[in-house]
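Hi P.,

Sorry for the delay on this. The queue was packed all week, but I finally got your sequence through. Input first:
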Amino acid sequence: MEFEKWSTYHQLEDEPIQFGDWSPGNWNDTYLGWMSMRDALKDSINIPAVKTLNEVGTDRATEFANNLGITFGEDGMVLADALGTQEVTPIQMSGAFAAFGNEGVYNEPYTVRKVESPDEGTVDLTPEPVTAMKDYTAYMITSMLESVVSDGTGTAAKVPGLPMAGKTGTTNKEIDSWFNGYTTNYSISVWTGNQDRSSIENGKNIPKEMFRHLMGELSADVETADFERPDSAVWVDVEEGSRPAKLPSAYTPASRIVTELFPADNQPSNVSTQYQRMDPVTNLTATYNEGADTVDVEWSYSGNAQFTVTANGNRLSSTDRTSIEINNPQAGETYDITVVASGSGGASDSEAQSVSVQIPEDSSEEENEEESESEEETEENESNDNDESGENDDNNESDQNSENDENNENNSNETDENNETDGSNEESEQENSNTGSEQENNGDDSETEENDSGENESSNNTSENSYNNQQNENETNEEESGSTSGEESETTDEDSGNTADDASSDATEESAENE
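Then the structure:
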């Protein structure tokens, strides 16, 4: 970063490699291929670190380390020093890491600030600050070391809510274990190991846990500012996997875009062509083949592509051909068909092209529907006829009942009139009885004949009343009544010599019979 203006995205390949007689390896003996500098530092991958030192050169790296208070012996720096073979002390490491949190300014660690004596007065022992690196270098390294604590190998050292950065470290055979971390206020370095240089085995997390407790106590009642990004460093969206870094295109998937830090004067400017939109299909047609009962879909395309075909929103096929058949389409339905071209290598899908086709109605189904409708109309007409017939029957019955009620009313009226006539006849019979009595007392034959004549009139009146009562019931009774009346009249004439009392009694009996 300091010399080559690399970004935190700078790509390094993790792979087996040989440097002369030396073949470095990773702590887990696996290789992950291409990765960013951020990921390599976050996960403590050895091969990218060795490659970086080899590319920068040991001379420039020594200069950079010296500015941070790190020195090397007579043999100088070697590639193996990229993995921590040079012996250093915790106080050296805490001073060096403090510079990254102090915008690149190094302050040599010290314990005595000043000395006061009677002769020489006050002697200030505070060392002079030294600019060890550019501010963008300090900030970008700090950003990567924040990732170590947030989701890398140093999560066990994290103090919740505290802006901090740090780096884990171990040596071969796990003889040494380190954690170096800092905030904008403090820098702490913790080393653990055995005096006899034996393996610490399961003690690798001890430095992280000690750091967490120490930094937590120091920062408990102190305001800790976050690391401030200088204008010389900028965040840039780049397309993941591009080498060198390239800007994403309009068709780069969001999942393939990462945001990394770059020196402001060394940002990427080229746009990636990895993800481009495929050209749409042309000459798209869809026709119904009545003989085969299929929908034939065809299109044209220049170049190789995979085509996705959908109908009414349902995926039908994925093919590399430029035609498909839809078998047994639904009669009467409209099929809205779309075709999308997809490419290999991450190219974005083409714009969808659409076409519609109408499937004709099935003739046999139409005939069945017409027959069904005809049967329904026939049943409906029969139902209406039955309803009308029922209504006529009800009307006829109602009319008959009305007529019978009228006849019954007339008969009732006539019966009342006959009853009145019977009453008159009884009065007449009483008068005739009185008259007959008088005639018997007087012994006058002539008057007796008159009484008989009056008796006949009374009998006729009674027969007439009976006739009226029987007239509505039966005409035969009318004739019999007339005949009986005649016979009675004759009998009355023959027996005219009888007394008036007998005549009155006979007339009453005849009237009862007729009634």
